[in-house]
Amino acid sequence: GRQWRPALGLLQRMAQVAVEADAISCGVGVAACDTGLAWELALEALQLSQRRGLQLGVIGCNAVVSACADAHSWEQAAEQLLTARRRGLTQDAVSFNAATSACEKGHCWQKALQLPAEARQVRLQVDVLGSSAAISACENAEQWAHALLALEGLEASRLEASLVTFNAAISACQKGQKRGEALRILRAMQDAGVRADAVSYSAAVLSCSAAGRWRHAQLLTAEMRAHGLETGTDTYSLLVMDCEDRDGTAAWR
């Protein structure tokens, strides 16, 4: 985890003694900084390569963007992605995935949704990892409508949504109190052959409860248990309280 210090120090020493660093050595320095979660120093290594007129290519670009993403610095990740594009550096899906992940961690859902469109402009297709990060960003911001649009875009691109992708979309609908949409996604993931887990069902159950459909919530919980999944303590407690509030008895039991 600390290998970036000697790697960057060696690059700086090479510059001091006029030893010609090449693209490989600079690339190693950038990647080492990425591994060490030191995005500022990853940028410094990148700038050193640029001063020497070296092009690090897609690996160097990915390392810098990933370092920014790991540090939750979405602004720097997006800026480096744009800078690389302006310089004509090669980018791939990994570059955009890392930047989208940074936006998710930085709670910037608008930029997270924008990046897949930018990827398409340069004839790249963001894969399911990038799309999942964008949907998760929408979930965190309680932007259920945008989460659904992103999920539909994933399907339109003929990419198979993962369990994480579906769960983020269901949770976004649950937070937005959109019971119908949450249930539709739950069934869609089952139709797609993706096995729902406790997170999937819990979000759908809470959506039903919030909409006053507690009997439907009971049926979903029974289905959940039939699949060998356990109801989380928090979910169970909320449902019991909801039932008691509605009819004065613990009907859930």
Automatic annotation (TrEMBL):
Record carries keyword Magnesium: no
Q: Which residues form a coiled coil?
A: none
Q: Looking at the Swiss-Prot or TrEMBL record, what is one Pfam family this protein matches?
A: PPR
Where do the PPR repeats start and stop? 162-196, 197-231
Keywords, in A-Z order: Repeat
Domain of life (superkingdom): Eukaryota
Q: What is this protein called?
A: Pentacotripeptide-repeat region of PRORP domain-containing protein
The taxonomy runs: Eukaryota, Sar, Alveolata, Dinophyceae, Gonyaulacales
